[in-house]
Amino acid sequence: MGLDSRWIELPSVHRRLLLFSVTAAALFCLLLLRLWYLQIINTEDYQERSVRNRTRVLPLEAPRGPIFDRNGRLLVGNRPAFGISVMRQDVENPQALLALLAQLLDINATTLEKRWQQGKGLPIYRPVVLAEDVPRQFAERVLEHNTDLPGVLVSVRPVREYLEKGSIAHVTGYLGEVTEAELSQDRGKNLQTGDVIGKVALEKTYEDFLRGTKGLRRVEVDVRGKLLRPLEIEAPQPGQRVFLTIQQELQQAANLAFGDNSGALVAMDVRTGEVLAMLSRPTYDPSLFARGIESQAWTELLRDPRHPLQNKAISGLYAPASTFKMMVALAALREDSGARRRVVDCDGSFELGEARFRCWKKDGHGRTDMIKALRESCDLWFYQVGLDLGIDKIAAIAREFGLGEVVGFPLAGENAGVVPSRAWKRQRFQAPWYGGETVIAAIGQGYVLVTPLQLAVMTAALANQGTLLKPQIVKRVEDWQGKVLQQTTPQILHQIEMPAAAWQTINDGLVAAVNEPHGTGSASRMAEVVVAGKTGTSQVVRRKSEEEEENQAGEEVPYEFRPHALFVAYAPADKPQIAVAIVVEHGRHGGGTAGPMAKAVFEAYFKAQSTDFTTLVLMEKEESD
Amino acid sequence: MFDRRLVLNFDWVLLLSVLLLVSAGIINLYSATANWATPGGAFYLKQIFWFSGGLGLMLLTSAFDYRHLEHYALHAYFLTIGLLLYVLLFGKTSMGATRWIHLGFFNLQPSELAKLVIILLLARIFGRTAKTLGYGLNDLWAPAVLLLIPFALILRQPDLGTALLLLFIAGSMLFFAGLQRQTFLTLVAAGLLALGGGWFMLHDYQRERVLTFLDPEADPLGSGYHIIQSKIAVGSGGFWGKGFMQGTQSQLSFLPERHTDFAFSVFAEEWGFSGSFLLLLTYLFLVVWGIYIARRAADRFGMFLAIGAVAMIFWHIIINLAMVIGLLPVVGVPLPLFSYGGTSMITTMIAIGLLMNVSMRRFMF
Fold first, then answer.
1. B334: cis peptide before it, omega within 30°?
2. Structural domains of chain A ordered from first start
3. Mutate: best of A39, A125, A221, partner B, most B CBs <10 A
4. Cβ contact A222–B325 (<8 Å)
5. ipTM score here?
């Protein structure tokens, strides 16, 4: 340690010390610049990222909009379903917890265990659903034990409830879990896997109105996703309220009258085109689909030979049989105003070249005019008149009545049916039309095919003297404040021009069919109201020979060979309000099977009206008192 | 034996700035670890304990005349090399690195010791001979070899951060000693070459850290996570900060290692640019004050000792801060006096003690 070592060469050392200080200050300035960049210039970006870091969004399911009948009676609503879920973050001893829950819920512990294991894939801030739709008393039991069940939540979520069960299932439709394909479509927007969506009928067509807007719960989470506290709640908006044109009493009456039969029924207001009742049988319980139908039940529904999933009212195709005779009669009246008095001698059999066509009444009706032909449904009269008119004139009238075309009903699956003509046959079969084909078309057999809805539209147009109304099923859509979002008004598709006398003639014939002796529709006769109607018996298989028929007459014909029973009617005959069209598959005779069903619907309709009327009168009285 | 002048010359400014920084660190630590269940006492209490120990060591280090240290520099150096060798052979392995010798209540980290010893050794070498024209390559063989032995041993642990710090400290002291122009250029060239070659010698995790630094968003949940979360914390602090205990990044644990290496991120989030500015200013003051101590040193050895101690503290600060604000890759370097940790606290306080020693004895001749 000499003096040497203590000697400091001052100027250069001081220069370096200064350089060091300046360098240090410069580096600190660099750091401060960086901090300025992060904390002042880009702070908004980082603040947003820090918010995103710590917040998560939990969706809140919105109740679907309810569906009401025309008078505001609830048809499809929502009921609360109690679910048991658990926040994994709050559970210390899952085994004990699941065991206690299994005991309280009376569920197999392994089921809960499975759900618990599946839930481990979820982010920790999301509750794991252990049981869905448990009975209320079980949910209450869980709530009572909540101190022993840390982290367990009882949730209430809306589940679709179909109050009419299967009665109106084909109109309201059902829900199902949204598919990948639907998610990529426009109608799947704002939905996530696991959400439900309307699959058929109104639930599908009115999806945009019925589906509510999901709410959300924004929560704060930590780095492991552990939920710390709720930040805000946006309440879900329930879907809009859809009011149908359906009248619940009529629907129920029709449902009751139809019994276990297969087929379809449509009742319509002849002044507005509003469908008052629509059913298709057999039916299904739409609530089966609300929480995912089991595949076995689904397969059974699909394979059922009686097609319960199909809405036969709009897509079932049937030969209209004698209900088509009004078309022939009108074609004749348009051709010749004296056709009402046209007389054909019915001896039960009609010959055309080699072929022989028979009247349903073996011994014949004798001398028959148009009214008698309609009343007693004489086939021979229509064979002769139809043959004289030719198929194209019949077809023209039928088309004016909306047959052979879809009307644009708001439910998917509507069928157009067939109204045959020469042109149609040439195009369809590249074959000429034969006179014999006109003969059977004149009694609504052969190529002619219609849907029950078309029959109802046709019948309504007969009742209101030629105004072809578009059938409506939705009356209006309202929001929850009662503001009307959509309102349907009567829509005239076409005005059929006919002399007033022609309408009167058809009306007379149909009134006679129900109310006079020998009328085929007497089973629908009512005491207070005059009903006008026409029966039909639609052959399913061509009659093979007389002998066979003789043999079968005495015995039971197998179900699938029995003819369909049809009936169309309106009432009151003098000032029509309501029309019905009924097809009972394999129901044998139109009058006997379908007639009473029409009567039941009419009774319900006029009963409801008279009650309304009475209340109205009473109210007026009170006011005047 | 005890000189009254020592008390009169006690460097209160140095102690005060240290106290300021440590207090800020402890307050910050309280917030950073507030929602932790900590067996064996809260972190901020432990940090107070370490600081008390550090304060004792600082007083001890400044109590005797630093010139005695010059004599023992080589002894200390070889002892440290021995400990480093021992660590490599029998040390405690944790998180893929072997750095510690278990001493019951305390895990000794010889690489920390190496930083102090290299300061001591280089101060002794450079303090002895002053070169008017600066040092040439021929003069530097001995110090280079003496430096590279602990450097290599620490790199083997592996502890790239500490090894590089060793180089930074030595480099600063060397630069301060003065270099011939040619030597300076040669060293810079050699340094660049070593940087290139070093890339291939890096461990995978170290290489990944460098790549992550260059593009942290490439793997936001993996290796880029630390740096992204730290930048979010710092950036979201804004000008005024989110407030004490209000930093969501730290309170909700998005920020990793928030009590140790990333303690400054917590501070920057909760106190904002304003608080960070004041903290950085205090650090700068400490560094400049340290340089001032070197300037006033009574002899060359003392000056180099002070420069070495300041360089050590300074480079820790710069590397740590640059790391947490995304200017440097993530290397495990704590913020002196601020991050939680006994080892860092004690090493830093011994360095402060050396500064104090030099400062107190500036008039001793």
1. no
2. 57-244 (3.90.1310.10), 248-614 (3.40.710.10)
3. A39
4. no
5. 0.93
